[in-house]
Amino acid sequence: MYQTISIHPSETVSVHSNGLGWPGMETICLIAVLATICLVGPLAFRRIRRVERSWMKKTVALFAFVLAASSIPAFGEEAPTLNVYGPHDNLISDGIIKEMTEDYCDEYDTAVNITCIDGRKSLLKMVIDSDGTADLVILEENYPLYNLSGMKTLTNEGLIESYQYLYRKRALMILQKGEGISSLADLNGKTVAVTDQHLPGGCLSLEIIKDAGLNVTNVTVESVEAQLDAVADGRADATILWDSIFESCTDSSREEIEVVDLPEYGMDNFVAVLKDSSHRSEAERYEAYLLETVSGESWIGSKAVA
Fold this sequence. Notes:
Elements: E1 2-7, H1 25-44, H2 49-70, E2 81-87, H3 90-93, H4 96-108, E3 111-117, H5 120-128, E4 136-140, H6 150-156, E5 163-169, E6 171-176, E7 191-194, H7 204-212, E8 217-220, H8 224-232, E9 238-242, H9 243-248, E10 257-261, E11 267-273, H10 280-295, E12 304-305
Parallel strand pairs: 2-3, 2-4, 7-8, 7-9
Antiparallel strand pairs: 1-3, 4-11, 5-11, 5-12, 6-9, 6-10
Helix pairs in contact: 1-2, 4-10
């Protein structure tokens, strides 16, 4: 499953053009008047035929040039539509990355398609099989809990030259207040809300419980939002969610819960330009824009990996 978000410049954006562009009806009318004067002027003053022919040739050449320039939107290439492939993270599909992209499209009068794919292994396969249609990719470098190695695989396949740190997904343990839980080990003997549905972020709680070797009682619910509801309503002592999912849930601000960060299970995500991108220079400009904007946010970490 995947979702493509097409982002275009807003109607109020100013146009950046490297060419002449259409000069407008006022300009065309002015040129037409000037051309007429130039054509009939020598006749009105009874200039010699040789000068008349010279004026006519120059005027016709100038008028033809202006008309040709008027019919071309710009001498430079029309801004391409970039294709970005990434995981189905809230930060990308409906968060800060989408907001940055909207600002970029407005500033540079261009369009970007962001395709969010469910399942990072499926995303990796789609990028490998994209055959030049993908310009950029957002993926993890490696994440042992899920046996993922996205950027390393793309590097080994010769599809990218380097990748840059973009953002970190934090794993959060959400708890009932007053339960005396401050670490994963404290979950032993407790009830933990989980979901076995194949949804983005749905398996995080189950995988961390398994990886940490915890002895807990699972409270199975139908969605990641329901995991938080189970804790807030007292049906479970705790659950584990990605930060972006937690923040998007209605119950994230309820007083009955508290949150503990699990840094050992955080996931760093990176951005890279594909070597066979059809719009390499534009893709590199977009990448630089994202990285510069991210550096101005209160996000932790910034590193380049060759």
